[in-house]
Amino acid sequence: VTLGFFPSLAGFGPFGEHAVNASWIAVQELEKLGLRDDVDLHVYEVPVEYQTVQRLIPALWKKHSPQLVVHVGVSGMATTVTLEKCGHNVGYKGLDNCRFCPGSQCCVEGGPECIDSVIDMDTVCKRVSALGLDVTVTISKDAGRYLCDFTYYTSLYQSRGRSAFVHVPPLGKPYTAEQLGRALQAIIEEMLDVLEHSEDKINCQHEH
């Protein structure tokens, strides 16, 4: 059965003190592990540049029309694998790898202050935690007002909420690439399951 799920997975490239970006390594591990057979997975490495993100995210949606895009970023402050509930529009003051920051300090001028993912992250977190993986999964409502948050908001705005963002800690602090890859695999499979069930409910409501 092909359900037509085409998750595009985007990890970030190197920046600042992260000469090797754990998010990209984790995404490559996931690519090795694979997802269930009915999922067509597309993987991209995203440069840590505001203007590239503004161009690339709409292009990805246009090219693949995916049912879900999952972004993965590294956070030097994270000690768990963190599911981000929402993206924020305003407050981008940090310079990117090109020493650039948006003059308006926002993603989409006139856009809502905050956009939530259509995926219920609390449910995904509970389900993944119940699997007994050797990785702790937590929830966050603040993706940090840097490229991760900027990308997430841009993607949520483009997809009307059909995006997700996962923050991972730096490699070895405390998890290996393999542990992160396995955690991503479990998280994305649960996200797809939650998305399918919520869409079944929506379709039922439309039919009645």
UniProtKB/TrEMBL annotation:
<comment type="function">
    <text>Removes 5-oxoproline from various penultimate amino acid residues except L-proline.</text>
</comment>
<keyword id="KW-0645">Protease</keyword>
<dbReference type="GO" id="GO:0016920">
    <property type="term" value="F:pyroglutamyl-peptidase activity"/>
</dbReference>
<dbReference type="InterPro" id="IPR000816">
    <property type="entry name" value="Peptidase_C15"/>
</dbReference>
<comment type="similarity">
    <text>Belongs to the peptidase C15 family.</text>
</comment>
<dbReference type="Pfam" id="PF01470">
    <property type="entry name" value="Peptidase_C15"/>
</dbReference>
<keyword id="KW-0963">Cytoplasm</keyword>
<dbReference type="GO" id="GO:0006508">
    <property type="term" value="P:proteolysis"/>
</dbReference>
<dbReference type="GO" id="GO:0005829">
    <property type="term" value="C:cytosol"/>
</dbReference>
<feature type="active site">
    <location>
        <position position="148"/>
    </location>
</feature>
<comment type="subunit">
    <text>Monomer.</text>
</comment>
<dbReference type="InterPro" id="IPR033694">
    <property type="entry name" value="PGPEP1_Cys_AS"/>
</dbReference>
<dbReference type="InterPro" id="IPR033693">
    <property type="entry name" value="PGPEP1_Glu_AS"/>
</dbReference>
<dbReference type="InterPro" id="IPR036440">
    <property type="entry name" value="Peptidase_C15-like_sf"/>
</dbReference>
<dbReference type="InterPro" id="IPR016125">
    <property type="entry name" value="Peptidase_C15-like"/>
</dbReference>
<keyword id="KW-0378">Hydrolase</keyword>
<keyword id="KW-0788">Thiol protease</keyword>
<protein>
    <recommendedName>
        <fullName>Pyroglutamyl-peptidase I</fullName>
        <ecNumber>3.4.19.3</ecNumber>
    </recommendedName>
</protein>
<feature type="active site">
    <location>
        <position position="84"/>
    </location>
</feature>
